[in-house]
Amino acid sequence: MRITTNAILRDYRSNLGTSIANLDTVRKKVMTGRQFVSSAENPGNALRAATLERKYVKNQDYLSTVENTQSFLDSQESAAMQISDIALTLSKRYGIESLNGTNYGSLEIRQTYADAWRGAQESMLLSLNASYEGRYVFGGADAATPPFSLTKNADGSQTLTYRGVDVNDPANADILDQLSKESVFLDMGFGLSIKNGEIDPSSAFNTSLPGINVAGFGQTANGISKNMVLLAGQIADTLEKEPFDRDEFKKLLDVFDDGRNNVLEQVTTLGSKSQFLTTTKDRLETDELNLASQLDSVVNIDMADAITQYSWAQYAYNAALKVGTSILSPSFIDFMK
Considering the entire predicted model, what is its pTM? Predict the structure, then answer.
């Protein structure tokens, strides 16, 4: 077989080009830290990386949502605990002390207790209108405006409205019942699904806690308001009346105690929700680590291995250059006379 000089040169240029290309490929890997720069280099891993990146970003969104929701729930729980603490002080201290014979017999002493009840009433109202980052925590589906408003009527009585609806008017029972069941669902990676045009509650997290579920609404069978804010005002009015109606005071106080127990139930529910969010956050953080590890194995390089490959490619390229210097030496021209 006849091997010409041109054939040797063509073969050399081809091999040298391959050596340069290999060197450039491993150089890019070392410089970028990635196994591939374009999807054409590794279509399989590129597709898998795109899928993992979408999952990773979505998981981060879920994690951010959980953290924000946890803070929102903490605000709800803090406000509910404030109401519970106020109610406990009113019931177990001012309530019991007011029933003491030496106290309820004196209008001046009862007036002092009445002032305490009215001050606590204002404090509970402030807690019910608490907000977090511009959102009212007890606003239900409408967190943009203060949910509760207390006004004094011409006859001295008080009217409390929730989202513009009188919480003590029996005619509003159906509306208030609907407001008490409002939900605000957030997608936290539970597989959000919609059935018959409505979100499946088991596939999302409900952040809504309507304030009327905390403070109460409607009336008892005896016509006594179930709302703790209104009850505080009515108890204060009873303490200021002369003569003092001890039985009426005790009836109001018993209903107030029922409301306080309801607040404690809401606090317990919020605690359970908070624990659930903590568990969810732990799961999402574990998923984040797993996805990051998978993404790293698909996209990023083992730097030690890449440097080894680069060193070998550099060695091969230098060797090729040295071979090139001896291809034409000696040549046929050197033997011509």
Answer: 0.79
